[in-house]
Specification:
mainly alpha; 49% helix; 7 helices; two-stranded antiparallel ribbon; UCP021697; elongated; membrane
Length: 142
């Protein structure tokens, strides 16, 4: 076993240091998040009458429309396409730790924790957020 100074994210999980199958790095993660949330906002504006410039007391439930659409996108695409549209565009996919299909409950748990934000920004040495650790998933390069 190598010491922490010489290890790389994903080494403890048996993943390669770089290339396909390696841990998805922060730049790709942020790009995927921006793509997905932008798409969710556009969909919410087009179909749910979301107004990004409305004051919260005027917007009512619609202030949460982009987050709801974002969650639906994540929950639908993770088990069917192996990742959200943003993940797939930037060349990543979500897998069950150890490989295989994520199933149905993992995307739901992962998404609910992701929209809480805090679990997603607390990482371990393998750059897996708490949302991935709890759901038993890993975000890797495709």
């Amino acid at each position: 076993m190598t010491d922490a100074a010489n290890s790389y994210p994903g080494e403890r999980l048996g993943l390669p240091a770089q290339g396909p199958g390696s841990i998805g790095r922060i730049g790709r993660r942020i790009a995927a998040l921006l793509i997905d949330y932008t798409a969710a906002t556009v969909i919410a504006m087009a179909f749910l009458a979301y107004d990004p410039w409305a004051l919260p007391y005027e917007a009512g439930w619609r202030q949460f429309a982009p987050m709801i659409v974002f969650a639906v996108i994540q929950i639908l695409f993770l088990p069917t396409a192996g990742g959200s549209p943003g993940h797939r565009i930037v060349g990543m996919r979500v897998e069950r730790l150890g490989g295989g299909w994520t199933g149905l409950w993992r995307p739901i748990v992962r998404t609910l924790l992701l929209i809480l934000v805090i679990p997603a920004v607390i990482w371990d040495a393998d750059q897996r957020g708490l949302h991935d650790k709890i759901a038993g998933t890993v975000l890797i390069r495709a």
